[in-house]
Amino acid sequence: MKLARARSLQWLLVRRLILLQAAMLVFFIILLIVVLSVVKPRLMIDNEAAVTAIVSAIDRDKDGKLVVQDTDELRQFRAEHPKVWYIIHDDTGQTARVGMAPADYDRDLGNLLSVVDHASIGFAGKHDGREMRPEALVQKVDTKAGTVQVVTSTFHSRSDSEGFDISITAIVDMARKPDGTVDWPRVLPGLLASLGIVLLPIILAMGVTTLVTTPAVVRRSLAGLIGTANQAARIDFDTRAMQLPVKNVPQEVVPLVNAFNQALNRLAQGIDSHNRFLTDAAHELRTPIAILRTRAELLTEEPETLRLRQDIERLSHLAQQLLDHQSLDRPSEHRRIVDLAEFAGRVAADLAPLAIEAGYDLAFEPPDGKVEVEVNALQIEQLLINIVRNAIEHGGGKGTITVMVDPAGGVEIHDEGPGIPVEEHKNVFEPFYRVHPHSRGAGLGLNLARQIAQLHGGSIAILDGPWRGARVRIQLPLRHRAV
Q1: Residue 149 and residue 139 in contact, taking contact as beta carbons nearer than 8 Å
Q2: Is 87 strand, coil or helix?
């Protein structure tokens, strides 16, 4: 079954931020269009403001002549724009002027401009070698004198400008039906295309910015969580009491880290309670086993008595292995530097009578010189004893058991028995696992040996090769000498 791939929080945030920004941009533009359509604001620029200032001042005298009164609003506007000028035309052909208008504007504007409601007049080309004519506004307005056309500008010449002016004109003209209503089927495609042209660059810019900045922000924000996760990955059986720090963890993840720490506490307490039970049970077993051994020794020498003594010895060995197994959970600070060659040789010598009694020859092959390792001597002794006793018990009762030490910190124990099948090389290190279910061993010796080796930063393995019998190699780290 294929496991589902974990989702990336970083790219999930990037995608959602881009979509959110695009949606918000579209929403605000639509909202702006709606507001503008309801409020219908008018942006006043100088020329349009000039028209607004003079509307209330246009009137007729008693003879019907077009005049411009000096109102407060017009007076104030002219104070702010002293160069402003006006030319007012009515439907009867009358004209009124305020200020000094440029000559090109003070003339008949023609039939076209006389009928337009609103227009801007500008000149881009040169006139007499230079272009000084200002932008002007033509607009029809309703006044007390009736509907008139006003031509105006706040400047007489471009030389009167303050230096730099920006004029932005936006004209929206929509197709209409013969009855004057908007022809939306024709307007909408162009309107949507225009919105797309305006919005797409903005969305792309926002998306690229989000794509570039969000991963860095997320990585920086989650740096503390990543450090905590790395520390959690280093927790094993021997460091189960470790607590993960929450100092640099995002606030939203703190409950998860606290729950994990509480789970570690509960597991540690449960394992300690379980270990205490096994240790106490092993201790309690030693007393009745000792009583059984004493009573068995008083029995007459018969085949059943021999088998009973062997079973009692097996129980005693199992109880001792359980105690040895539980002792590994205690801190292993009692380490010292030993010569592995001398140490292994002494263990081999101690076990030689047991091997000879079982029908084997025991050989020891030391290296040239010392092999110094820093170990808990009692634990390493138990490791070697378990491997050699395993060879004695399963080596077939004949041949030679060889203990060899090499300069690299390795110890190999060979026997010439039936060996261990290759497919069982890893299984035999599991607790209570036996290749032959009816064998006398309890299945704890090799498991205990592996745990001791790992506790010292080493390893243990069964080697493959063309030789006869089993070959077990124990590898321990050499002592680091200060340079």
Answers
A1: yes
A2: strand
